[in-house]
Design a protein that fits this description.
6-stranded mixed beta sheet; alpha/beta; single chain; 18 helices; inorganic pyrophosphatase (n-terminal core); 5-stranded parallel beta sheet; 466 residues; Diaminopimelate Epimerase, Chain A, domain 1; globular; 15% strand
Length: 466
């Protein structure tokens, strides 16, 4: 452990007990996978403790958002508010609500300032851990309630995977959560392909609709994928004519498929780090159906992202809490989400610009502001470009302002990349933003776009890029 584990666990337990003392709470969460997972953990813990819960989601926490939160708490008669996956970065504004509500914050982003005693606050950053890869909001939420509800660990794992904290394997607090989940029989760790659709899609669709990596000659072409399987002696249908999934293959055929796919990627000159990342630790939940998205943490996390980023966060919460019908509703959104990412990736592939310090994707009018960050991350992880610099994308939000999403890799962070610092510096006086070293976002007015790009280029050059 790199930080103060004992201090963190004691704080998390204390914050969890405080939250469970709230009689009627408004749980406010972010819309991405980690926000939904952490929000679901808090909601489910409260409900299972016999408390009344109301939920509310926000794309980002701002002064305007805090006004909406306060108004909803009043409207629903809530005497307490719980923030998950944000709050630390605006702790001053959050503390203003303490005059009228009991408050708690479960977060992993950098703190704006040290919190006062008016808020029950837990954040791994306070205890010497990194919010980038030591703990997500969902894993932090798990530690808040694990003494009473250890079966919430799978949702914590899903949130951390959705926050891309497993790219180099879980560490620190995430590793502790995983170990407890495995010991309790809630999770298994396998060495296997790390690609979306391993379980839920037939083999042909699994390959054809892959975006990480994007494979020239296969991605987007079902006929070419069927031919690839045939040429390598891998069945696409079983004896009854049913489509075969990767999970249905024998160990020998799985090994044959992985070898053929890796060799194909090498032949197509995908970057070595992309090829190396095809196989790694995957996290599966043995109590779930292996042919659904809920069996595999990566697919589960994508399902939650689909719900939150397409305006249906409530469905994502219901999926986490195993509510009837929620999975089928989420699957419909998942199809829309994957299509949006795929279309965005095809657009980025043809239209990206190398600005020296970063790859620039101008996705205004083409990609929604709720998925542009996913597209930027997928672009960088697709193998289409060398992962030697971050990707920065523009989209327009509902007000017509410019949403900025920046994505890097852990290897770039090790070389000095800090997107949180870069964006905070670049938007000073012209917007607002922040996040983590490996991923961050900002909002600026359309009139300040050129100025922002100049500032960002200069800032990233100082970090050693371009």
């Amino acid at each position: 452990m790199t930080g103060n584990e004992k201090g963190f666990l004691e704080r998390a337990k204390a914050v969890g007990e405080t939250i469970l003392s709230f009689e009627k709470a408004l749980v406010v969460h972010h819309i991405d996978c980690d926000g939904l997972a952490s929000g679901a953990i808090a909601v489910w813990a409260l409900e299972r403790s016999g408390k009344t819960v109301v939920t509310h989601d926000e794309k980002q926490l701002s002064a305007e958002a805090l006004k909406r939160v306060s108004a909803k708490a009043d409207e629903k008669g809530c005497n307490a508010i719980v923030f998950t996956d944000f709050g630390s970065g605006m702790i001053g504004g959050v503390e203003e609500l303490a005059k009228r509500f009991k408050l708690a914050v479960i977060d992993h982003h950098k703190l704006e300032q040290p919190p006062s005693g008016s808020v029950a606050h837990v954040n791994c950053e306070e205890f010497g851990f990194s919010g980038t890869d030591s703990a997500s909001a969902a894993s932090t939420a798990y530690f808040c309630f694990r003494n009473r509800f250890p079966d919430l660990a799978p949702i914590g794992i899903v949130g951390a995977v959705g926050d891309m904290q497993d790219r180099s394997g879980f560490k620190d607090l995430n590793a502790l959560m995983l170990r407890e989940a495995v010991d309790n029989g809630f999770c298994k760790v396998l060495r296997d392909l790390r690609m979306f659709g391993r379980n839920s899609r037939p083999l042909v669709g699994f390959i054809a609709y892959s975006s990480e990596p994007f494979v020239p000659g296969l991605s987007g072409d079902e006929k070419a994928c069927a031919l690839f399987l045939q040429e390598n002696g891998i069945p696409s249908r079983d004896a009854e004519g049913n489509w075969v999934h990767y999970w249905d293959l024998s160990p020998e055929l799985k090994k044959k498929f992985v070898g053929a796919f890796v060799n194909y990627c090498v032949a197509k000159n995908l970057a070595p780090e992309v090829v190396e990342g095809l196989v790694g630790d995957v996290y599966v939940f043995p109590k779930e159906d292996p042919h659904t998205e809920l069996f595999d943490a990566l697919e589960y996390s994508t399902l939650l992202n689909a719900c939150g980023r397409h305006g249906h966060a409530a469905i994502g919460l219901r999926v986490c809490m195993n509510k009837e019908g929620a999975l089928n509703e989420g699957k419909a959104l998942l199809n829309e989400h994957r299509a949006a990412i795929r279309n965005g990736l095809f657009f980025a592939r043809k239209n990206f610009v190398d600005l020296g310090a970063f790859y620039f994707l101008d996705c205004r009018e083409e990609v929604s502001d709720t998925v542009v960050g996913v597209v930027a991350g997928s672009f960088l992880g697709s193998g289409l470009v060398e992962r030697i610099k971050p990707a920065v994308a523009f989209a327009l939000d509902e007000k017509g302002d410019t949403k900025v999403s920046a994505r890097g890799t852990l290897s770039l962070v090790e070389k000095g990349l800090d997107l949180d610092a870069a964006l905070r510096t670049s938007v000073e006086g012209i917007g607002f933003g922040g996040g983590h070293k490996v991923a961050a976002g900002a909002t600026i007015s359309k009139e300040r776009e050129s100025e922002f790009l100049r500032r960002l280029k200069a800032t990233l050059r100082k970090q050693g890029f371009g």
